[in-house]
């Protein structure tokens, strides 16, 4: 056992090795004597290591203390806690401390922290404060802990606002780094630790970084549980040791993080902010990986770090599978989960906010470590950076501030601290750079300007050419030996190419000259297939995809025994890549003998390519009209063929000849001479190339310099052109091989620019701003990539003009670009992209077959502030950046897309071109998931399809549903007869069943298309007979539509069908048909509606309108139009737990039982179907149907298992799942899902929930999970992920357990998921009283309570009153005369039923008096009803009004409410519930009634106004108003400016159809149904007032006598109409008042009974 000792803070306390457990025991016992050793670990590590460690320790103890009763013999205690970041809290710390105290641990205790960083940080912090500090030993088991967290003595716990905010410096006595622990560490955790290794190397140690770069694939796979011991020279141990050494060095020089130690926070300033938002789903190392890249970008933007180093860092991070951007799918996925549980989404502001609680901040500046190159930071501490700069890096989009190049210079960074101050090890915080001294840092490249002329002159060189870089990489890799590549482009494309070449073992790559030079060691063409299961992932790198397709064919085939290699190479890319064409190349290669398969779509990636070793050579034919890259791809590999190759290009025209020439030229540089054939007669060049056999050689010098990219060069040159300034580019001139190098001469010069070009340099000077000439026609075929730049310039080219029409002035603004058809199949359809995005500036264009015309406009006419979509295409982004320099406020939406060819474009635009760029965060609609979705409207919901047996009542239910949802109904059979012009029956008789089914499915598919939204469709009963129809229905349901199976008892169906003749007879027994179809209905429908005639307890007979109410509620809910959920506005809510084995006996008592509750729970586990342990689905459905017919309250469906305190067997999760899914199919509103069910089952249930809510529940029957334990927090988090409501139940042993529960609730309240948190048992009753959401309650009439300690609603209210949380309030009726008012009876009955301590009394008076005012002002005033004559007068003493009161113009209810103003804490709100009374009363007799076509109001007083408002709220299309005094009616109609009201001269004459609702507000004795003498002064109600042929509702507001003339008339002439006497309206408005005042549902049935008793007395 070799141990390497590393010194930290002057002591050799770090011991590194492999298999150190014995060494640890010996060292502790010998050098840290103690009476008690306490080992603390987590539940992941304990089962793996605890036992052997304890055994080793015991043996070592025995050896030293052979006598077991020796008082000096130390104790060895162990304690295990839950794993993960959620444990690292103040509570987690307290739990450990309690353990130590319980075991009487004293100051001489030695604590051993065995585990990852979480254990290390937490246990370290415990040790730091326990008994004012005890000794601690770190035994890190995760890589992260080994290399980072265990070293240096920083300990901490997290707080809700951020990570590590509370902690201490506490140096461990020892740190034992035993790499053997890594054998069980999951790979993801290994990579997580490597992130810290990368960090340490990046700031301090380039050698270690190079080791990391070279070993990514081996490091991640070197350890498995069975792997042999690693020696200290293994790269993993080398890296661990070097990392530890670096950290130890830094810590030793600055133990308290005054300056130098700040460096190890590289990546953490931003990384911690990310981590605070995505914990625990994304790991620490993963967050700091993103943080490192972003902080490196910050350094690059500040001009401190070069792109080469940044590229290395990012690539290294990615090679370990670590995330490098905020858009990494791990982070997005985590964000989704966090948001779903009520957390915050990631935005630039939240990140900056989190960064602002960083301990290391210095005033307004945030401390960030700025990297200067790999292995070195800008200064020996973190640098103060402004928010604005961080914001820019974090933002996904940029805004270019229009301005003259060279005029913007960024404020410089504070001067660097390059030497360490004399360290004062006790100093707690370092010097803060608060003075921004104006001094340009040596590394900052301010815009360089030449002074000679009066216009700004920028000089720069652009990044290496992508085309040349990619070719050079392939050439150098195919070389034998080494080749040094200089000025290689560092971009995604080249990174992808290098990674793929490495995977193919084509070459190895190493960086020298601080990353300026890439040393390529080529294999000479000996390539191998990557191991099985690996793919070459090419992202969206088109060049790599094309070149590598041929490269993969020349890979050597593996010998048959080699299982480490796959049989074929697979290349693939991102979604966009998978659409880009590759067919011509594949076809050509197949023609040459290659075997290439398309794995997804024909003609595109992914490809599977068989290794051939060599292509045969000979003649090869290729269609080169789509891309020259196909040609280059073959050319590059052709020398490695078995025979010399002749490449013949075919197709309409060869595209981009220049790129072909470039490839040939570069091949020549690498020693292979390609010859192009000439026509013997004419001497013209032919499209035939001869490639000899050979092997590439590096150029003589061993070095190859890559020319700058000519396409990139077009942007700064175009900026000079468009802004009227001058720009000189080095490294690109007339000798360039790149087509785009002609852009300056051929496009810009004719537009009025001055262009000077030498062989290697280009200078463009633009004409004065606004003076660019339109170019006329330009053929850009040789420089297709530059056409986007040309478009940007052409957009403002209006002056003069060249080309056709220019003289006449007609073509003044036309630039016609041709020869660029291939740009339609680039990163995006670039022609379309330019057309669409130019339009945002107000620029018109016209598309041509091979290009487009751009019609320039004068600059001032261009639209400012355009937000440009870049299609993830670098060229689109940079081209529009050119235009943005002259059009203010332009936003480029995806700044990162430039990474492809000019990764630091935006930095260069600011730093080198001197144009300011700002960060912008675009509003992201997708992230606003938390705000409730826009309310659905009937017209837009997917149509509801009804299926079911004929005779099950589909059409009737359909009619009711359609009425309830205000949707039209389509009857399939009727539609069939209409379309085929023949009744169903005769169609079948004439043409047979087979023909009928065919016609039926055709019509179904048509209807599903034509009536996709906003219909209720009742389908034919036999529709499920055809497979095609079933598939269509299933697909529809799966996509979110509702397919409802209307069910009825088979006997009922039989009975009905026997009497029916209209439709064809089945020709077989009804029962047989039913049995055959039932499984099909079951499979097609995602909902079931029970239209049963006979239900347990005679449920169907309960009250008229029960079925209508059920249909309205059911369809309103499942369609999402009116989800039947408990209102979230109520201050408390309850549900009643029904504990019956059969609900039937409860049904008649439901009104009383549900007093005061908001929902009813059906405990399916308690249902008892005779002879069965588990009730059958059909029994459970019937029970549900019956319950639902008896109550409109939402139902909570629960299957409680035995271990959670219920009766359902624990070992039957499948059956439990079946019942839960059944409940969702039946439209049950809340489904209780125990978090202990199998995860896949839970996911399955959650995916089916539709508008229903999941109550995710966890019950600890024993009370062993404490509210202040981390375990309970973990339970909350698990439940919050699946539930809309979280339910946590524990058990109280003493009353104080309820206070712990309250603390818990207060803490998770920020997470804002509705939470039911309750302690069972008598001692837990207080928690039931204090719980506010969906408290489960019982009722004295129930056989048993569902849980120990359960209380009734009125018990809870009484308890709340007694403990002062529900003070008694006084309520009043104001008005006169009121002595005979039923209101006191109404409200006092309600208060009593709910156990509320309030009283309701009268204050009779005709005006507002001092007494009234005193009552209104008294603190115990709870509210008042207001009646005549005060409904208007009262308004003057109120503070505000509801919309209803304002529109109706009167107040009948006063509601005190909380005001935000502290000086006037209570406001009096005036409301009018009269209209609610009218609506409520109408719905009570006609539940489905909505949006009547027309309705009539009689009278023109205050009540008439309420009636009009009620009808308007109901959605009435035409409201008629009739009053004897016409002018009064007109006055009302005019007062309702926003509600159209039609005043009638005469009753019985209906200009827009007869009314289906009539509301009389006239006193009963003022109406008559008789004519003649004595009745002249009364309103005559003619018999044609009501249309007896339809159904309707009559409301008479007069509440005495019980039968008014209007009601009498209705009974006589329209008996089908429903009637509402005034007292019912009064009741309904009273319920509404009650509910406003108390926030509780009024116990309607009880109140109603009392009031009617009183009324009839
Ligand atoms: N104090 C510091 O200076 C410092 C520095 C860096 C990070 N940190 C902190 O460290 C924490 C992260 O540490 P971590 O990544 O080690 O997390 P961790 O402690 O949660 O360990 C990661 C996971 O791996 C498991 N595990 C650990 N070792 C194992 C092994 N040998 N075999 C099997 N499973 C094993 C753990 O149970 C856990 O589930 C964060 O809280 C971070 O803030 C502190
Ligand atoms: Zn860290």
From TrEMBL:
The active site is at residues 257, 272, 897, 1259, 1287. It comes from the Eukaryota. The keyword Ribonucleoprotein does not apply. Pathway: Metabolic intermediate biosynthesis; chorismate biosynthesis; chorismate from D-erythrose 4-phosphate and phosphoenolpyruvate: step 3/7; Metabolic intermediate biosynthesis; chorismate biosynthesis; chorismate from D-erythrose 4-phosphate and phosphoenolpyruvate: step 4/7; Metabolic intermediate biosynthesis; chorismate biosynthesis; chorismate from D-erythrose 4-phosphate and phosphoenolpyruvate: step 5/7; Metabolic intermediate biosynthesis; chorismate biosynthesis; chorismate from D-erythrose 4-phosphate and phosphoenolpyruvate: step 2/7. 7-phospho-2-dehydro-3-deoxy-D-arabino-heptonate binds at residues 132, 148, 154, 164, 196-199, 247, 268, 284, 359. Its EC number is 4.2.3.4, 2.5.1.19, 2.7.1.71, 4.2.1.10. This is Pentafunctional AROM polypeptide. It comes from Pisolithus microcarpus 441.
């Amino acid at each position: 056992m070799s141990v390497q000792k590393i010194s930290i803070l002057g002591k050799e306390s770090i011991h590194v090795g492999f298999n150190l457990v014995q060494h640890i025991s010996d060292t502790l016992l010998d050098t840290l004597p103690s009476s008690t050793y306490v080992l603390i670990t987590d539940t992941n590590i304990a089962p793996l290591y605890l036992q052997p460690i304890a055994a080793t320790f015991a043996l070592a103890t025995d050896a030293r203390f052979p006598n077991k009763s020796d008082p000096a013999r130390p104790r060895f205690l162990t304690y295990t806690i839950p794993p993960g970041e959620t444990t690292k809290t103040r509570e987690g710390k307290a739990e450990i401390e309690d353990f130590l105290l319980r075991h009487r641990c004293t100051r001489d205790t030695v604590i051993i922290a065995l585990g990852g960083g979480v254990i290390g940080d937490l246990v370290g912090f415990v040790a730091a404060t326990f008994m004012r500090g005890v000794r601690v030993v770190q035994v890190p088991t995760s890589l992260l802990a080994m290399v980072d967290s265990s070293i240096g003595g920083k300990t901490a716990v997290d707080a809700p606002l951020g990570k590590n905010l509370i902690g201490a410096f506490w140096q461990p006595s020892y740190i034992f780094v035993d790499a053997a622990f890594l054998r069980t560490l999951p790979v993801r955790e290994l990579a997580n630790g490597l992130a810290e290794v990368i960090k340490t190397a990046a700031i301090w140690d380039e050698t270690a970084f190079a080791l990391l770069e070279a070993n990514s694939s081996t490091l991640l796979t070197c350890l498995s549980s069975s792997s042999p011991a690693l020696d200290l020279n293994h790269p993993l141990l080398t890296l661990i040791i070097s990392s530890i050494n670096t950290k130890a060095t830094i810590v030793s020089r600055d133990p308290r993080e005054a300056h130098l130690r700040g460096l190890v926070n590289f990546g953490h300033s931003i990384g911690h902010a990310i981590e605070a938002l995505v914990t625990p789903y994304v790991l620490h190392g993963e967050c700091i990986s993103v943080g490192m890249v972003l902080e490196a970008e910050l350094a690059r933007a500040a001009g401190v770090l070069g792109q080469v180093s940044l590229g290395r860092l990012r690539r290294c991070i990615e090679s370990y599978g670590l995330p490098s951007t905020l858009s990494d799918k791990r982070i997005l996925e985590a964000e989704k989960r966090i948001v779903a549980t009520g957390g915050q989404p990631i935005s630039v502001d939240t990140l900056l906010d989190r960064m602002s609680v960083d301990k290391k901040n210095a005033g307004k500046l945030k401390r960030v470590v700025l990297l200067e190159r790999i292995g070195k930071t800008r200064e020996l501490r973190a640098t103060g950076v402004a928010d604005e700069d961080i914001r820019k890096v974090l933002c996904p989009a940029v805004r270019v501030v229009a301005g003259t190049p060279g005029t913007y210079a960024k404020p410089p960074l504070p001067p660097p601290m390059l030497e360490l101050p004399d360290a004062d090890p006790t100093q707690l915080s370092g010097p803060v750079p608060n003075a921004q001294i104006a001094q340009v840092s040596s590394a900052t490249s301010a815009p360089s300007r030449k002074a000679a002329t009066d216009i700004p002159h920028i000089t720069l060189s652009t990044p290496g050419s992508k085309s040349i870089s990619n070719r050079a990489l392939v050439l150098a890799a195919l070389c034998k030996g080494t080749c040094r590549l200089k000025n290689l482009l560092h971009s995604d494309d080249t990174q992808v190419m290098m990674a793929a070449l490495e995977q193919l073992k084509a070459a190895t790559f190493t960086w020298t000259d601080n990353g300026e030079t890439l040393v390529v060691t080529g294999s000479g063409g000996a390539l191998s297939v990557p191991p099985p299961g690996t793919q070459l992932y090419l992202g969206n790198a088109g060049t790599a995809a094309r070149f590598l397709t041929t490269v993969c064919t020349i890979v050597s085939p593996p010998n048959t025994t080699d299982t480490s290699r796959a049989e074929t190479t697979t290349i693939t890319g991102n979604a966009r890549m998978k659409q880009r064409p590759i067919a011509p190349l594949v076809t050509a290669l197949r023609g040459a003998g290659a075997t290439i398969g398309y794995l997804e779509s024909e003609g595109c990636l992914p490809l599977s390519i068989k290794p051939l070793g060599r292509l045969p050579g000979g003649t090869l034919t290729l269609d080169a009209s789509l891309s020259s890259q196909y040609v280059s791809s073959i050319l590059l590999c052709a020398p490695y063929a078995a025979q010399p190759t002749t490449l013949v290009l075919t197709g309409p025209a060869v595209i981009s000849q220049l790129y072909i020439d470039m490839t040939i030229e570069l091949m020549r540089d690498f020693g292979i001479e390609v010859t192009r054939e000439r026509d013997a007669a004419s001497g013209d060049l032919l499209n035939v190339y001869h490639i000899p056999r050979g092997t590439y050689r590096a150029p003589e010098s061993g070095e190859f310099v890559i020319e700058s990219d000519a396409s990139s060069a077009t942007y700064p040159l175009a900026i000079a052109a468009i802004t009227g300034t001058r720009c000189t580019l080095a490294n690109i001139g007339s000798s360039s091989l790149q087509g785009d190098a002609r852009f300056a001469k051929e496009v810009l010069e004719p537009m009025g620019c001055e262009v000077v070009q030498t062989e290697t340099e280009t200078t463009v000077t633009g004409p004065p701003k606004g003076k660019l000439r339109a170019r006329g026609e330009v053929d850009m075929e040789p420089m297709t990539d530059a056409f986007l730049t040309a478009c940007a310039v052409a957009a403002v080219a209006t002056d003069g003009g060249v080309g056709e029409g220019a003289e006449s002035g007609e073509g003044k603004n036309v630039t016609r670009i041709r020869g660029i058809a291939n740009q339609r199949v680039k990163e995006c359809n670039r022609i379309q992209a330019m057309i669409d995005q130019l339009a945002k500036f107000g620029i018109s264009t016209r598309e041509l077959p091979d290009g487009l015309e751009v019609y320039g406009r004068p600059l001032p006419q261009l639209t400012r502030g355009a937000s440009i979509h870049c299609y993830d295409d670098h060229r689109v982004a940079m081209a529009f950046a050119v235009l943005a320099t002259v059009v203010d406020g332009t936003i480029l939406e995806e700044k990162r897309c430039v990474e492809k060819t000019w990764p630091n474009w935006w930095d260069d635009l600011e730093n080198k071109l001197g144009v300011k760029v700002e960060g912008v965060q675009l509003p992201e609609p997708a992230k606003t998931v938390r705000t409730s979705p826009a309310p659905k409207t009937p017209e837009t919901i997917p149509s509801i399809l009804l299926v079911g047996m004929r005779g099950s009542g589909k059409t009737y239910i359909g009619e009711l549903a359609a009425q309830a949802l205000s949707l039209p109904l389509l009857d399939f059979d009727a539609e069939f007869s209409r379309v085929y012009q023949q009744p169903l029956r005769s169609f079948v008789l004439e043409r047979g069943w087979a023909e009928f089914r065919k016609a039926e499915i055709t019509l179904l598919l048509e209807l599903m298309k034509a009536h996709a939204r906003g219909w209720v469709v009742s389908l034919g009963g036999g529709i499920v007979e055809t497979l095609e129809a079933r598939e269509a229905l299933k697909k529809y349901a799966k996509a979110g539509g509702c397919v409802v199976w209307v069910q009825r008892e088979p006997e009922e169906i039989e009975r009905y069908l026997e009497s029916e003749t209209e439709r064809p007879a089945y020709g077989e027994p009804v029962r047989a048909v039913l049995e055959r179809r039932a499984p099909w209905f079951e499979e097609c429908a995602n909902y079931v509606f029970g239209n049963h005639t006979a239900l347990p307890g005679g449920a169907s007979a309960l009250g008229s309108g029960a079925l209508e109410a059920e249909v309205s509620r059911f369809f309103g809910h499942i369609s999402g139009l009116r989800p039947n959920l408990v209102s979230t506005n109520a201050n408390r809510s309850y549900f009643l737990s029904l504990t019956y084995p059969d609900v039937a006996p409860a049904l008649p008592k439901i009104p009383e039982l549900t007093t005061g509750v908001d929902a009813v729970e059906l405990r399916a586990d308690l249902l008892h179907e005779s002879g069965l342990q588990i009730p059958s689905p059909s029994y459970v459905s019937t029970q549900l149907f019956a319950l639902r017919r008896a109550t409109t309250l939402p139902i909570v469906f629960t299957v409680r298992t035995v271990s959670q305190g219920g009766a359902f067997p624990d070992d039957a999760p499948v059956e439990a799942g079946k019942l839960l899914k059944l409940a969702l199919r039946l439209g049950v509103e809340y489904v209780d899902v125990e978090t202990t069910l199998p995860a896949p089952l839970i996911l399955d249930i959650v995916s089916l929930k539709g508008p229903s809510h999941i109550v995710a529940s966890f019950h600890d029957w024993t009370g062993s999970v404490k509210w202040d334990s981390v375990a309970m927090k973990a339970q909350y988090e698990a439940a919050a992920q699946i539930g809309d409501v979280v339910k946590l139940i524990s058990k109280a042993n003493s009353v104080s357990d309820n206070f712990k529960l309250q603390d818990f609730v207060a803490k998770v309240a920020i997470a804002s998921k509705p939470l039911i948190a309750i302690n069972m048992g008598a001692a837990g009753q207080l928690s039931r009283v204090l719980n506010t959401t969906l408290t489960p309650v019982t009722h004295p009439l129930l056989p048993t309570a569902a849980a120990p300690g359960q209380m009734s609603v009125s018990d809870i209210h009484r308890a709340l009153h007694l403990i002062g949380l529900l003070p008694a309030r006084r309520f009043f009726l104001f008005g006169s005369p009121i002595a005979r008012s039923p209101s006191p009876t109404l409200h006092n009955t309600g208060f009593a039923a709910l156990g509320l301590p309030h009283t309701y009394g009268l204050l009779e008076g005709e005006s507002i008096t001092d007494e009234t005012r005193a009552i209104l002002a008294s603190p115990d005033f709870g509210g008042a009803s207001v009646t005549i004559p005060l409904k208007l007068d009262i308004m003057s003493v109120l503070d505000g009004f509801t919309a209803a009161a304002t529109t109706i113009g009167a107040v009948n209810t006063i509601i005190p409410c909380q005001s935000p103003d502290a000086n006037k804490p209570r406001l009096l709100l005036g409301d009018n519930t009269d209209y609610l009374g009218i609506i409520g009363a109408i719905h009570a007799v006609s539940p489905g009634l909505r949006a009547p076509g027309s309705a009539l109001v009689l009278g023109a007083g205050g009540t008439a106004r309420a009636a009009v408002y009620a009808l308007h709220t109901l959605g009435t299309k035409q409201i008629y108003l009739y009053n004897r005094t016409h002018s009064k009616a007109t006055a009302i109609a005019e007062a309702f400016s926003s509600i159209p009201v039609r005043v009638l001269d005469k009753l019985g004459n209906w200009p827009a159809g007869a009314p289906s609702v009539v509301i009389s507000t006239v006193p009963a004795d003022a109406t008559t149904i008789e004519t003649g003498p004595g009745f002249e002064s009364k309103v005559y109600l003619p018999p044609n007032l009501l249309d007896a042929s339809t159904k309707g509702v009559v409301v008479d507001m007069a509440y005495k006598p019980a039968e008014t003339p209007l009601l009498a008339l209705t009974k006589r002439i329209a008996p089908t109409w429903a009637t509402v006497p005034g007292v019912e309206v009064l009741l309904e408005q009273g319920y509404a008042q009650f509910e406003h005042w108390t926030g509780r549902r009024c116990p309607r049935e009880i109140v109603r009974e009392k009031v009617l008793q009183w009324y009839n007395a």
